[in-house]
Amino acid sequence: MRLALVDYGMGNLRSVANAFEAIGEKVQIARKAADLQNASAIVVPGVGAFSDGIRNLSRSGLIKPLFEEVQEKKKPYLGICLGMQFLAEGVSEEGGLDSGFGWIKSGVKRIRPADVKFKIPHMGWNDLDIKKTGGLFEALPEDPVFYFVHSFQMVVAPEEYSVITSTCWHGTEIVASVQKENIYGLQFHPEKSQRVGLKLLENFASIARNYAEKTADSCPYPA
N vs C: which end of the chain shows fewer Cβ within 10 Å? Predict the structure, then answer.
């Protein structure tokens, strides 16, 4: 089972890699298409502006391979913070009118709290309202608390509301996580969320391992 951690020049790679290593999982830093092709699952972290991230991915030649591995081969994908926002179909308000992958009908917009006491960026600990149990939230405590750092949020189209797995409140309801088949997105940072974050990453690693075993069983030739 191989986890590919995508490096496009903006992700907090070391802290995410350290978190996976803390639960006994090794990751491979992915900078080219072959790294994604050899992986059982793909993790895209990120901090910074949406437009810069999309442009860096495009310059790296990774957008088409990501589509092939995730959308066509159905490898598990975990997008963290910016990596979740990349899933959006519509243009982002952040740093330019750049479109995301288009895997979820949504846009990326600035957080606009109704009360000025809620500061932007949304930074710090926040509890989740879990909409769908199981999956990444398997065996997590009720109303788990995670660490957030962001000024923009995914706004999901009404016809795609079923992908929302959790929300949080910061002067307005914020989509905190999504899942669409093999695609998982987290607005918060599990790698900064202590034990509960490590448990969530364990759950993703288990999903990745199940995929690796399933595809190995379906291969007609010896590895």
Answer: C
